[in-house]
Amino acid sequence: MRAKTAAYRRAFAGVLAVLSDVDPYGLEPGAADGAPADEYEPEAGDLTRLLLHDGGVTRDDVDDVWQRWFSESLSLRLGVEGADRLVERLNAVADG
């Protein structure tokens, strides 16, 4: 069980770092004048669970999570190419 917990924590930290770096809303998580460093934590949790359960995520998965939390498509906010780059980075977390 500890191995699963450690794997989840590593993956979660990676996913949160990617979301914070992409920062689709320009909230600057962790910056002195920005949002708290855990700003995208709920979305990171959902995406981490998908990554670990399914072995990866798709743009549709990310859009579904974003729709649930923000009532909008992340692909529309970032553009299809930006969303695809995000998906690649998230899947790299699962691979690494």
Explain what the structure shows:
With 96 residues, the protein is an all-alpha fold. It has one domain (2-95): Endonuclease III, domain 1 (Orthogonal Bundle). Helix content is 72%, strand content 0%. It has four helices and no strands. It has helices at residues 2-22, 41-54, 59-70, 74-95. The model has no long low-confidence stretch (mean pLDDT 93).
Fold blueprint:
Layout: H1 2-22, H2 41-54, H3 59-70, H4 74-95
Write a compact overview of the structure shown.
The protein is mostly helical and 96 residues long.
Q: Which descriptors would you attach to this protein?
A:
96 residues; mainly alpha; Endonuclease III, domain 1; 72% helix
Number of helices: 4
Taking all Cα atoms into account, the compactness measure Rg is 13 Å
Q: H/E series, N to C?
A: HHHH
Q: What is the approximate shape?
A: globular
Termini separation (Å)?
Answer: 20 Å
